[in-house]
Amino acid sequence: MPAQLTPEAAIQLREGIGLLLGRWSALQMAIQNEWGGRDTRQRAQQLTLDIYQWLIRPSEGLYVDELEDLLDDFMLSLNTEIDDGSIEEIAENLMIMHEECLEGNFASIGRLRQSVPTSNQQIQVVKGGEDDSDSASSSGDDESMEDANEDEDEGENDSAPQDPVAAPKVDADGWTVVSSRRNRGGRP
């Protein structure tokens, strides 16, 4: 019989899933730009619950590739295609978090809780079925965050290519979101 989460571990896991997804740049861009429609935010909240239920389902084994498929299908439902490895990284981190919760170890969730997501991320995501001219970059609404990060950014971009397609941006967590060159069967 597979190990069961304690009630405390279940609460911690659900919070951890939300925190991790809240730091996934590609998902946050899709939410911010409502690429899945007006209900994109609600659908993302449902994703948190779906992942939680998937992780706690009674089964003989949980396979990371199944979780990757769940995440990929969800992002495609938001008209967002991800080809940068972040889906694999998110799925792996979710599996690790689940294992840690089974052991009563909530350290990674605590670190997520204490970390502050960067609102001045420069990333590139393309809505499915659209060309590169519609790619978007995010920038934080908080000008003080931009000013604080401006000093760090100076000097780094001097030698970087100016073409955003040729030089994908890496966010604070080390994830890169790049556009796809494929058209997924005419998806809107």
UniProtKB/TrEMBL annotation:
UniProt keywords, alphabetically: rRNA processing
Acidic residues composition bias: residue spans: 140-157
Residue segments, region Disordered: 120-188
Biological process annotations from GO: maturation of SSU-rRNA from tricistronic rRNA transcript (SSU-rRNA, 5.8S rRNA, LSU-rRNA)
Cellular component GO terms, alphabetical: nucleus
Key word Nucleotidyltransferase present: no
Family: Belongs to the TSR2 family.
Protein name: Pre-rRNA-processing protein TSR2
Protein species of origin: Helianthus annuus (Common sunflower)
Phylogenetic lineage: Eukaryota, Viridiplantae, Streptophyta, Embryophyta, Tracheophyta
